[in-house]
Amino acid sequence: MPTRACIFYKPFTTAFAVCAFATGTISAELADAIDRPHTGEPQGELTIREAYTYALVNSPRLAGYEIDIRISESETLQSGLLPNPELEVEAEEFGGSGETSGFDNAESTVLLSQLLELGGKRNHRVKTAKLGEDVSRFAYEQARIHLLTEVSKAFISVLAAQEQLELLQQNVKLASQALAGAETRVESGEASPLEQLKAQSVLASEEISARQAERKLDAARRQLAELYGSDDPKFSRASGKLRQSIPLPTQESLKQAFERHPEMLRWAALLEQYRQVVALEESKSIPDLTLGVGLKHFNGNDNLSGVVQFSVPIPLFDRNQGNIRKAREELGKAYQDSRASRINVLVALTSTYRKLEFLRSEVENIEQNLLSSSQSVQEKTYRAYEEGKASYLEVIDAQRMFAEARIRHNETLVEYNKAFFELEALAGRPLSEITSSENNEHENL
C-alpha cells in the first residue's frame, strides 16, 4: 500500500466539508461570528486542530466573506419586496375667474395607484439574488479551505523548524564531545594541537547554524500566529509529527471529488445567476402596468364619483435591447472563465499529484538508503576514532554527512507535506476521505 508523509487530523475533515446551503441556514451563525470576540492566545503546546480552531474563529481574512453573505441576504430581502403604492391628490376648477373663482365648484380627486410588474420580473429578481447568496457562501467555503491550507503549511514549517533546531543542537553536542575527545588526545600526545583547533572551528560553525535555526523557528512561529490573528505567538511549541503513513487516492477519484469543490459549485451558481440576469433583462422588455382607483368629489353639488386609471408604456423604441445583449455577453464570458478556471485547477491537481508521487519516492529512498547508511558510517567512524583507527577529519566528514542526510530528510518531508495539503485544497476534501470512499466502493463490488 502506498504511503505518504504528512500530518492529518480529523478536524481538517470537518473544515473541508462542503455543505449544501439552503437559504438562510447559516445567517444566524455568521451574525454571531462577525461579532464574536477574539478567543485569546493558545498557551503551552499547540496542536494542529487547535491551530485550525483559532484560525477559523479569529482570522480577519474570513470576516469580509461573512459580511458578503449578509450583504447577499439583504439583497435577497430587498429584491422580493413589492413596489410601494402611490397616493395622488388632485384639485381642479378653483382659483380662476367667474364660477371657478372660489372653491364652490372645485373638484378634488384622491387616487391610489399600484405598479404591477409583468413578465415575471420579481421572480427572476429574487432568484438572481438567492443565487448571489450561494455564490457568496461558496466563496466563503473556498476562503476557509485556503486559510486552513495555509495554517497546515505554516504548522508544518514550525514543526520542521523545531526538528531542524533539535538536529543542529545535537550537532553542537556531538561537536562538543568531539572537541573534548580531541583535547584529551592532544594532552596525551596522541594528536597534534591542529586537531583541537579544527574541533573548535567545527563547534563554532555548528553553534552559528543552531542560532540561525532559532531565528528561522521564530519566523515560522510568527507566520503561523498571523493566520489566527496574532502578531506575538504565546505557544511554547507545536506538537505533531512530520512522518505518518496514509495512502494516496487515485487521480480519477481526485477528479471526481473536485466536482464538488466549492470553486466549482461557486461557478455553477454564478453561471445560473447570469442566466437569471438574462431572463430578468428579457422580462423588462414587457412593459409594466400601473393601475389606480379612487374617488372624485364635486363641491358644487357635493357628489362623489369613482375614478379608475391605468397606464402602460408603449415599447416602441426602448425594448431593453442593449441590456439584454449585455447580459447575454456577460453569461458567455462567465462560461469561458469557468472553463479556464476548471482547466487550470485540473492541471494543477495533476501536476501536484505527480509531484507527491515523486516526493514520496524520494522520502522512502532517503529513509531506506541515505539515512541508514550515513548513520552507520558515523557510528563506526566515531568508534574507530576512539580506538585510534580513524582521523578526526574522518569523524567530521561522517558527522556532517549524517547531519546533512537528516536535514535533507526533514526538508523533503516538509516539501511533501505542503504539496499534500495543496492537493487536498485542490480536491476540496481530505485525501483520507477520498481513499475511504475508494475502499468502500471496492468492498461493494
Description:
There is one protein chain. With 445 residues, the chain is α+β, with helices and mostly antiparallel strands. Helices cover 66% and strands 10% of the residues. It contains 11 helices and 6 strands. It has helices spanning 10-16, 27-35, 48-58, 63-79, 121-187, 193-227, 251-258, 262-283, 321-386, 392-427, 431-444; strands spanning 44-46, 86-92, 107-116, 235-238, 289-298, 303-311. The strands form 2 sheets. It has a 4-stranded antiparallel beta sheet, with no helix packed on it. Strands 1-4 form a two-stranded parallel sheet. A hairpin with a 4-residue loop joins β5 and β6 (303-311). α3 packs across α5 (121-187) and α5 (121-187) runs antiparallel to α6 (193-227). The chain is elongated and about 140 Å long.
Order of helices and strands: HHEHHEEHHEHHEEHHH
Mean pLDDT: 83
Cross-sheet strand order for the largest sheet: 2-3-5-6
Label the overall shape: elongated
Number of helical regions: 11
- Cα-based radius of gyration, to the nearest Å: 37 Å
Q: Give the total of beta strands.
A: 6
Category from helices, strands and their pairing: alpha+beta
Portion in beta strands? 5-15%
Q: Uncertain segments of ≥5 residues (pLDDT<50)?
A: 1-38, 441-445
End-to-end separation in angstroms reads 20 Å
* Main sheet attributes: strand count, strand direction, barrel closure: 4 strands, antiparallel
Helicity range of the residues? 55-70%
Please identify the oligomeric state: single chain
